[in-house]
Design a protein that fits this description.
Elements lengths: L4 H12 L8 H9 L4 E4 L6 H11 L3 E5 L3 H14 L6 E4 L5 H13 L4 E4 L1 H5 L1 H7 L4 E6 L19 H8 L4 E5 L4 H10 L6 E4 L7 E7 L4 H11 L4 E5 L3 H13 L4 E4 L5 H12 L5 E4 L12 E6 L6 H8 L9 E7 L1 H9 L6 H19 L4 H8 L13 H4 L2 E5 L1 H13 L6 H9 L4 H5 L16 H13 L3 E4 L5 E4 L1 H8 L5 E5 L3 H12 L4 H18 L3 H4 L2 H10 L4 H4 L7 H21 L18 H11 L4 H7 L4 H13 L7 H7 L2 H13 L5 H8 L6 H15 L2
Parallel strand pairs: 1-6, 1-7, 2-4, 2-5, 3-4, 5-6, 8-13, 9-11, 9-12, 10-11, 12-13
Antiparallel strand pairs: 14-17, 15-16
Helix pairs in contact: 2-3, 14-15, 18-19, 18-22, 19-21, 24-26, 24-28, 31-35, 33-35
Length: 726
């Protein structure tokens, strides 16, 4: 279909109100209108939708848009109807429509009013829809979110792999496949699956210069960090992503009680509530939407100013797409991610029960995400490299790593032995395995391959594993090694890598420099109270309360709890419950006296309490906590209980201590009788009766590490707290 530049611009102005195209849009639209298969790789905010919306209005027939989400379809259909005077110009058919509504859609299609019909692949598979569409002239097919086709894509959907056969059933026409996130491997999968290997490819840069990337450690204070951050973004819209639906609900409540206008969004909510919450965010009736990853696909809100990942995502593709919802108008866009290695392990456990192939792919995607989170390199450079794009600047200046101070260390010798080790294992192992060999770790895989016999086994045992991983990441960026995606990430040497082994050159990696004074201050903040005078007063009250109740002082409140009180100055029962180690039972039993003294101290000294530190919490009914307490009431063996909860015994002990130290009483005598000798139990119990504190390390030194098992000491300490304190 021939059309001049002026005619295209006029159509753009008439239908969408723009007078210029962005990036590759015009070339893509021309390619579609010439009846050619088209592959579009364009970041979020680049204007992908226009690439199939405008040609559908100008070409004969109707375009079919295959789209994965009902919310996405509704949003785009509403937008198209706003652009056109004809109400029936765009429709969708999905499970949200009734029979009469579907009949009305089909009537508009047959009349020729409809130029765009949105369908999920599941709907396109239905025989009744195939039969109907065979009688309609199809101008082209648009496969939106095309990464769903690939098993290496972050939203893989098996139904997407059937699209080519569906197209052949309905009627062959050109295809335009579009995605905002595709590695070279995913791009290859998409083109192969859709039988469009010869398609014209339009690839825009993945670089979004206006987005600021930052990764922060996810600690017990994460809710406080998040509330403080959102308060600093007052009046600006943002999205907070969580992995679990319950987490979405709980976090939305935390934000609400802290005066932040927030609403939850996840697939488990009823459709009217979900839609109402989405619309409230779009209409700026609420500042923040707390959501699972389902939210945001195709949502056209250009002024989202921040995107927070409360949990680390399952893949870098997912992370990139979700962060891409910030600053789509080219303005401010802050992308903050909270990271804990525990979250990676939790995601790995979620893969249990999947096929070996699915686990292999999932683990490799998780490893890439973990590497990104733990890296000291420019985050923009890492992201772009992952998507097959080279970022030539040394620093982007707009990520947390580029704003830190680093020193470069010479790692040429370490790189050489790393490359030799990859060669020694025949280029058939992943980064984790290479690090295990170099560090001398006798992991199950290393031992099974007899790689502990290699010359380089333990050659870098004095080097931190994080540094070895950093060397591998830098070597990937510098082109000395590459990853073989088909083998789920095995490391392969490049020509440059082989050359470096025989003729090493300069190779440096960055190591972060910490200001010594800052380190001292940070260390002090974690182990001492901000107000030492108040801390001393609280210790005195604790001592008197302990004497009155005939228990050791640490049974009342432990030092970290008093330190937190002397830092945040709680003056209400609600605020006291936000203090670590203070549960409802202890707060009710001992809290009034402490609150009275703190309140008097604050008033007498005219202390301005730090509002940002007093983060309100909501009462959470911990499912795991309830399960553990109920299981103990049924006298379940703690080893079996730990296994059923997917925890190690060490993790189970941590959980039990959190329960007991916050004031809840449990009875584990039945288990202690099975595993601890009665005389041993009595000696440990007597020790804690007379000890100044209940520190396990000191207890082991006093009792004798050669004679007592640490787990037994911890068990008896729990019994002691339950008997005397709770």
């Amino acid at each position: 279909m021939d059309i001049t530049h002026e005619e295209l611009v006029n159509a753009l102005q008439t239908y969408f109100g723009f007078d210029t195209f962005k990036g590759n849009q015009e070339a893509i639209i021309r390619n579609v209108m010439e009846g050619k298969d088209t592959f579009v790789l364009m970041p979020t905010g680049g204007g992908k939708s226009l690439c199939f919306q405008l040609p559908s209005l100008l070409m004969d027939g109707m375009a079919i848009v295959i789209s994965p989400l009902i919310a996405l379809m509704k949003n785009q259909v509403d937008a198209m109807r706003n652009y056109s005077e004809e109400e029936g110009v765009a429709h969708f058919i999905n499970s949200s429509l009734s029979r009469p509504e579907i009949a009305a859609v089909k009537a508009d299609v047959l009349s020729g009013k409809t130029k765009l019909l949105y369908l999920a692949p599941e709907s396109l598979q239905k025989n009744e829809n195939v039969d109907f569409l065979q009688g309609v002239k199809i101008s082209f097919y648009a496969v939106d979110e095309a990464h769903c086709i690939s098993e290496w894509g972050h939203d893989f959907r098996p139904e997407y792999s059937q699209i080519r056969s569906m197209v052949q059933r309905v009627g062959v026409a050109p295809i335009i496949a579009l995605t905002a996130t595709a590695t070279p491997k995913v791009q290859k999968d998409i083109q192969k699956n859709l039988d469009m290997v010869d398609a014209t490819v339009f690839k825009s840069s993945f670089n979004r210069p206006n987005l600021y990337y930052e990764v922060r450690p996810k600690t017990e204070e994460v809710d406080k960090d998040l509330v403080r951050f959102i308060r600093s973004m007052e009046g600006k819209s943002g999205i907070v992503y969580c992995l679990a639906r319950k987490e979405v609900e709980d976090l939305a409540q935390v934000l609400q009680v802290n005066g932040i206008s927030a609403r939850p969004y996840h697939a488990g909510m009823d459709a009217p509530t979900r839609t109402a919450n989405q619309d409230a965010f779009l209409m700026e009736e609420c500042q923040v939407i707390v959501a699972t990853i389902a939210f945001g696909m195709g949502i056209d809100k250009p002024d989202v100013r921040f995107v927070v990942h409360y949990d680390i995502p399952k893949s870098l593709e997912g992370y990139y797409q979700e962060t891409g919802r910030a600053g789509r108008d080219g303005g401010e866009g802050i992308c903050l991610c909270f990271y804990s290695p525990d979250d990676i392990e939790r995601l790995r456990r979620f893969q249990q029960g999947k096929t070996p192939k699915e686990i292999g792919i999932g683990n490799q995607l998780l490893f890439e995400t973990q590497s990104y989170a733990e890296s000291t390199l420019c985050r923009r450079k890492l992201l772009l490299h992952y998507f097959g794009e080279e970022y030539t600047e040394e620093k982007c200046g707009n990520c947390d790593n580029c704003r830190k101070t680093y020193k470069m260390i010479d790692a040429s010798e370490l790189l050489q032995i790393t490359l030799e080790t990859i060669q020694q294992v025949s280029e058939k192992q992943k980064a984790e395995h290479i690090v295990d060999i170099l560090h001398g770790n006798q992991s199950a895989e290393v031992m099974s391959y007899h790689h502990d016999d290699l010359e380089n086994f333990g050659a870098a045992s004095d080097v931190e594993e994080s540094t070895l991983h950093a060397i591998i990441r830098q070597a990937l960026l510098d082109g000395f090694i590459k990853k073989d995606v088909d083998s789920y990430g095995d490391l392969k040497l490049t020509k440059s890598g082989n050359k470096f082994i025989h003729k090493p050159g300069k190779f440096e990696v960055p190591i972060e420099i910490h200001d010594d004074e800052d380190e001292i201050m940070e260390g002090a903040a974690t182990c001492a109270a901000a107000d030492e005078v108040l801390f001393s007063i609280l210790k005195d009250i604790r001592r008197k309360t302990a004497k009155k109740n005939d228990v050791p002082p640490f049974v009342i409140f432990q030092d970290p709890s008093l330190e937190a009180m002397a830092t945040t100055y709680p003056i209400t029962m609600e605020e006291l419950l936000t203090i670590p180690g203070v549960g409802i039972a202890k707060a009710k039993r001992y809290g009034d006296e402490f609150l009275r003294v703190i309140k008097e101290y604050v008033e007498e000294n005219e202390i301005i309490r730090p509002d940002d530190m007093r983060i309100r919490t909501v009462a959470k009914k911990s499912t795991r906590k309830k399960q553990i307490i109920q299981a103990i009431d049924r006298r379940v063996d703690l080893d079996d209980l730990a296994e059923s909860c997917g925890m190690s015994m060490e993790e189970m002990m941590d959980e039990l201590e959190a329960i007991v130290f916050s004031g809840t009483k449990i009875n584990i005598n039945y288990f202690i009788k099975e595993v601890v000798d009665p005389d041993e139990e009595e000696e440990i119990y007597d020790y804690f009766k007379n000890a100044e504190n209940d520190n396990i390390k000191l207890a082991m030194e006093e009792l004798g590490e050669d004679y007592y098992d640490e787990m037994h000491v911890r068990l008896v300490r729990l019994k002691f707290h339950c008997d005397l304190g709770n």
